[in-house]
Amino acid sequence: MESIPQLTYVENFLSPSQEASLLEVVDASPWLDDLKRRVQHYGFKYDYKARRIDESMFLGPLPDWAAGVASMLDQQGLFRLLPDQLIVNEYLPGQGISAHVDCEPCFHDTIASITLGSSCDMDFTHVDTGEKRTVHLQSRSVIVLHGESRYLWKHAIAGRKSDVVDGKRVLRTRRVSLTFRNVLLGS
Ligand SMILES: O=C(O)CCC(=O)C(=O)O
Ligand SMILES: [Fe+2]
């Protein structure tokens, strides 16, 4: 399968013990139930309906555990700016996210999503040509969307209970993703 320009995928970004301790802090933190899946917002609250962010949505600096992951992304050269916003998403088997391009006026050009728990397919569709690609996100990996992969391809996770990986059906379990971004504040 051809790759997507300006998409970086790194396996074993986290060690199993880092993954376990991140899941532990996330699960000890309050979840928001306003979507079909549970989420947590750090740094800035994002309004999915209005698709906007401004200073009034500032929640405070990232907590230490999230700032630690943000600086790992920065130190490994995966981000040009230190991320200042994090959304945690929880997907139970059968849950997904519909195809979208992350809000252009809200966030900078680099978005990184770390997978904790279950692996899953992330499906990409080119906004103009409709071309399709799939990247299987392994547990403890990070996928970084930048430039073309961030702006010209929609990404989605199908709401199903298994994926076919290298010809084999893999059942999904609970997946928690950590998506780091930089907020663009209006001028
Ligand atoms: O769960 C993921 O890895 C992606 C989440 C996502 O695309 C989003 O929150 O915009
Ligand atoms: Fe997204």
UniProtKB/TrEMBL annotation:
Q: Which UniProt keywords apply?
A: Dioxygenase, Oxidoreductase
- Coiled-coil region(s) at which residues? none
Give the superkingdom in one word: Bacteria
List the PROSITE patterns.
Answer: FE2OG_OXY
Entry-linked InterPro entries: AlkB-like (IPR027450), AlkB-like_sf (IPR037151), ALKBH4 (IPR032857), Oxoglu/Fe-dep_dioxygenase_dom (IPR005123)
GO MF terms on file? dioxygenase activity
Identify the residues that the record assigns to the Fe2OG dioxygenase domain, covering every copy. 82-184
Q: PANTHER family from the xrefs?
A: 2-OXOGLUTARATE AND FE-DEPENDENT OXYGENASE FAMILY PROTEIN, OXYGENASE-RELATED
Task: State what protein this is by name.
Answer: Alpha-ketoglutarate-dependent dioxygenase AlkB
